[in-house]
Amino acid sequence: MFSGSIVALVTPMDDKGLVDFVALKDLVDFHVHAGSCGIVSVGTTGESATLSVKEHVEIVHKTLEFADGRIPVIAGTGSNATHEAISFSKMFENTGVAAGLSVVPYYNKPSQEGLYQHFKAISESSELPLLLYNVPGRTVTDLLPETVARLSECENIIGLKDATGILSRVDLHRELCGEAFILLSGDDLTGLDFVLRGGQGVISVTNNVAPLQMAQMIQLALRGEIEQARAINDKLLSLHRDLFVEANPVPVKWALHQMNRIKTGKLRLPLTTLNSALQSKVKQALMDADLL
Fold first, then answer.
1. Given this model, what pLDDT does residue 79 score?
2. Alpha-carbon distance 184 to 194, whole Å?
3. How far apart are CA 200 and CA 195, in angstroms?
């Protein structure tokens, strides 16, 4: 259902911190024309944690409208409260959203049984296809492969975005969950190797600034053209690394502003503009990738 390079899309904002829907439309068109294989709307990179529920829903619906059937849209539907995650999943049923991306509950630090019951409850309460999202660097709790395997038996849990960077898990997840289960990397530094080990694609932050290169690289990898894929990845390595010199999406929004893709690099507090001491590092990464 999902493969290739999928962008974890930023949410552009104006100088007052309001959502800039004109810039959002431009970004959607940018990714359609560059060959991105999907858009994640209002995930972590889209600042889901600091948007109101009304804004969250409106951004997803506007992204669907702008996409106009040209590219699949995955909606961020996660929460650390199970009832809220269920509510988001139900909101996006029968809207055109291709799937929900539901993050491991943050802050609560649930057990593996708690994680299983959380995602099982979402699955049983909504018909929206569900992608699990494991990012222990942000959530503290790690969704272990054995728990993923249990969840893969739920009818509408279709795959996993794995941002651990642990490549051996690709093999383990494939063994435990079967060939039909979708495995997507959420870690740009290891994304290419993830696909070469049997993953179907990536949900990428780097894709925000380099969608054409990312799309080409992942398609080459999926076809087994490893040398050509690595040549592209080598040019993107600085971006894979330096777009995380501060918390995502701080560096990538600064980079998009430098590229004139968005009018401002504005973020919602408590996130603030990229530290001036780090701006030259991100700028150099853009230059290394021939994007400036």
1. 96
2. 8
3. 6
pLDDT of residue 109: 97
How many Cβ atoms sit within 10 Å of the Cβ of residue 171?
Answer: 12
In the chain, the domains with their CATH numbers are 4-226 (3.20.20.70)
pTM of the model: 0.97
pLDDT band of 159, cuts 50, 70, 90: very high
Residue the block writes with tokens 């494939």: 174
For 99-116, the pLDDT digits (tens) are 999 999 999 999 999 999
Mean pLDDT for 56-71 is 98
Alpha carbons 167 and 80: distance in angstroms, whole number: 26
**153 pLDDT exceeds 80?**
yes
Q: What is the pLDDT of residue 278?
A: 98
Given a cut of 90, is residue 1 above it in pLDDT? no
Counting Cβ atoms within 10 Å, is residue 36 exposed (0-12), middle (13-18) or buried (19+)? buried
Count of CB atoms within 10 A of residue 114's CB?
15
- pLDDT value of residue 39: 98
Catalytic residues: 133, 161
Q: How many alpha carbons lie under 13 Å from residue 72 in its C-beta half-sphere?
A: 15
